[in-house]
Design a protein that fits this description.
six-stranded mixed β-sheet, binds adenosine-5'-triphosphate, alpha/beta, four-stranded antiparallel β-sheet, single chain, about 260 residues, binds magnesium ion
Length: about 260
């Protein structure tokens, strides 16, 4: 779906202001990121290896502590304070390149781990899930058409199916945002498209905002409603697939963002 006037005026779900992340004195993974994410959009963060895509995602859910800058989730500042973290992480469902399922557990149990954010610690220790949790988990599996595999061991599924289980696990958490870090990098093109189609479909059906890191231009053109282009820790482009022309791709993949700034002065 192309961006319409109504999605353009959707409320802001995430705001990032002046975000930087450095490792030591030499590695500047993020160098002043400012951006807003609209409620319900399917946003692709596109950029070459090392651009800072994963670091940005990890800062958003505080897996990584930023060096400077602020992040707001629905106008509330996201802090690294312990008491805020649990509530915060509940809002962010994660999907990873390597699926990160527990191989020896059933598909259903893997999806149920998405409910752990809502369980007390002692109950989670024993995988003690309520009937309501199970109902939610099966419903999430049905959304990715895998409810019939609920009782199979996770490692008996194909890669594409495992990633769909990972999407169901993220959904079971009932998040407001899904952060997908290179979710299809380990899959062949046909299956990659299938997984992205599911991801987009469920986000649409449930109104979940998706931030998806990709390095493939082709998939970005096909699936993104909006695109943020990153290069060497900076945002160098914001727009739609229609704006992703050769000049923009050159800017994202080849041009040094610092040189561009110098030219602009
Ligand atoms: N824990 C860390 N310690 C030191 N440097 C790091 C760490 N994490 C990331 N970096 C560096 O930060 C920069 C951005 O890395 P990041 O993983 O965010 O890039 P990316 O865009 O996700 O790349 P890729 O497409 O390869 O996943 C890189 O130079 C990387 O080496
Ligand atoms: Mg990465």
């Amino acid at each position: 779906m192309l961006m319409t006037a109504s999605t353009k005026t959707a409320p802001i779900v995430l705001s990032v202001r002046g975000l930087t992340k450095s490792y030591g004195n030499d590695v500047h993974a993020l160098r002043g990121i400012d951006t807003d994410v609209q409620e319900g959009e399917f946003l692709v963060i596109l950029g070459p290896s090392g651009a800072g895509k994963s670091t940005l995602m990890r800062c958003l859910n505080r897996l990584v502590e930023p060096t400077e800058g602020k992040i707001f989730h629905r106008d509330q500042e996201v802090t690294g304070k312990r008491r805020d973290l649990r509530a915060l992480r509940r809002q962010f469902g994660m999907v990873f390149q390597q699926f990160n399922l527990v191989k020896r557990l059933s598909v259903l149990t893997n999806v149920l781990t998405g409910r752990l954010a809502y369980r007390s610690t002692w109950r989670s220790l024993f995988y003690n899930f309520s009937q309501e949790d199970k109902r939610i988990a099966i419903e999430c599996l049905a959304r990715v058409n895998l409810d019939h595999k609920a009782f199979q061991r996770a490692d008996t599924l194909s890669g594409g199916e495992q990633q769909r289980v990972a999407i169901a696990r993220a959904l079971a958490q009932q998040p407001s945002i899904i952060l997908a870090d290179e979710p299809v990098a380990s899959l062949d093109p046909k299956i990659a498209r299938q997984v992205l189609t599911y991801l987009k479909q469920v986000s649409r059906e449930l109104g979940i905002t998706v931030l998806c890191n990709l390095h493939q231009v082709e998939y970005t053109r096909e699936f993104a409603e909006r695109i943020i282009g990153m290069s060497r820790g900076k945002v160098v482009f914001e727009g739609t697939a229609a704006d992703l022309d050769d000049e923009v791709l050159h800017r994202i993949y080849y041009r040094d963002p610092d040189e561009e700034e110098d030219q602009g002065r």
